[in-house]
Amino acid sequence: MVILICDAFDASLPQRLAPFGEVTDDLSRLGDAHVALIRSKTRATAEWLAQAPNLKLIIRGGVGLDNVDRAAAQARGIEVRNTPRASSVAVAELAMAMMLAIPNRLIEAHTSMKEGKWLKKDLKRTELFGKTLGLIGVGLIGSEVAKRAAAFGMTVIAYDPFVPQHPVATMKPLDEVLATSDYLSLHTPLTDETRGMINAASIAKMKKGVIIINTGRGKVVVEEDLAAALASGQVAAYGTDVWYSDPPDPSCPLLTAPNVLMAPHIGASSRENLLRIGDEVVAILKEFKI
Length: 290
Fold this sequence. Notes:
The radius of gyration is 21 Å and the shape is elongated. Helix content is 32%, strand content 17%. The longest helix is centred in the first third of the chain and has 17 residues.
């Protein structure tokens, strides 16, 4: 069995996979591969799959599968798996880090100090305590955010059409979550229903001054509408780790919009998470038979 590692995984993974067959990261060997390990960088399109006549299994290290053409894979008899539990803590902690950094104005504080300024009287902070956090999606990652937000004394409400009740978050209709949240954290997969759901119409329903955190999928927001809302102050700030593409196009309006805290899609890149992904990959290969 030839196992092709297409993207960045923990450095220990090739050695851990050696008992299952030949392990390579030579992308020119896609045609020989029986198993392909990918993350978000590789796009497993129908064209990509056509170059892999021997492929039997794709393992996507992470939660989403929107970079895999599952219909094309199914037509070829290729099994598609992911590692949904591995990334939950890493992404949840990044969402909380952004949720803390924005109201505490940590970027401005650090940058001003580096510039020799002392803005003690200028940098006014606000607290998470007592604020309402609205979660759009309470799957594995959203649930981890809910637990952490509750520990900060936030009121946690959520909308998820597939979750009727939740042990931490109080489930509400989407419009009520939009209208009452001080913070909104996005944790949905990218589907026809969620694509562009944060748009001019939904933003108009939100509290003025809402802070939006997105560690889910870039395309659940309409970038132009969100940039306009940031400029007007309807949205006070936006923290994002996810984009329409990796990296974003230079013309992306969020790159120049005010009050945007940006990260280069690092949510799943913690050292511990990469090791957990490896654990799940090994477990999948133990049960897989060509």
